[in-house]
Design brief:
- It is built from 7 helices and 8 strands.
- The chain has an 8-stranded mixed β-sheet, with helices on both faces.
- Strand 1, helix 2 and strand 2 form a beta-alpha-beta unit.
- The two termini are 30 Å apart.
């Protein structure tokens, strides 16, 4: 398949029917890092809720990649440009440097080939943004100490039905970036709607990183 020029994708203009919650601190945290009118690719975009939020908040030009049939249909209904594809097969459909940002929101822990995904993110965009549940959060550690795999708001699955195969902590991800050519530009750690500054690897539930190719 030849690389996709995003200018050739039909831009759907159907008004969004997504009803955003009164507060989505995870969406808002990502939006603060995205410049107005940027070109954004959301990997594993689900029903397109994040892209709808960024479209309303930052007037972005967004595209999504999603494999699930129902979610792809929901994206079309929500006016989101979407391509049905498996992330694990790479982003060969997109030309290098096609986007300002590529977002991987709470999906990093569920992909098998982490290094390949991060490399592809940095190939097709100037910057990558990822968010993931922090496995080092103190309640997760406590559940492990009591002999059980963690179940929480950000890790809601039981051990036997979880899609999460690469849980990590803040320290793990930062070490990964240093060894795989990704330079971290900003980090934000949150617990609910609160930003955590003190002992973030212990007290933070959800981590956000903005990074670029190491020069």
């Amino acid at each position: 398949m030849s690389p996709l020029n995003t200018e050739d994708v039909t831009d759907t203009t159907t008004p969004s029917i997504v009803s955003q919650p009164a507060s989505r601190p995870d969406f808002a945290a990502i939006a603060e890092w995205v410049t107005p009118r940027a070109k954004v690719l959301d990997l594993g975009c689900g029903d397109g809720s994040l892209l709808c939020f960024l479209r309303d908040a930052r007037n972005i030009h967004g595209y999504g990649v999603e494999i699930d049939d129902a979610n792809v249909l929901a994206c079309f209904n929500n006016g989101v440009n979407v391509i049905q594809s498996d992330l694990e097969s790479g982003l060969q459909s997109f030309e290098s440097g096609s986007f300002d940002y590529v977002v991987l929101s709470q999906t990093l822990q569920a992909v098998r080939h982490t290094e390949g995904i991060i490399r592809e993110m940095l190939r097709v965009s100037k910057e990558g943004i990822v968010s993931f549940p922090n496995f080092g959060y103190w309640k997760n550690r406590l559940q492990v100490l009591t002999g059980h795999m963690p179940v929480s708001e950000t890790l809601p699955y039981q051990w036997f039905d979880t899609p999460n195969i690469h849980n990590c902590t803040l320290g793990d991800f930062e070490e990964f970036c240093s060894h795989h050519g990704a330079r971290i530009l900003e980090r934000r750690v949150m617990n609910g709607g609160r930003q955590i500054e003190f002992m973030p690897n212990l007290l933070g539930m959800l981590a956000f990183y903005r990074f670029e190719q190491q020069r």
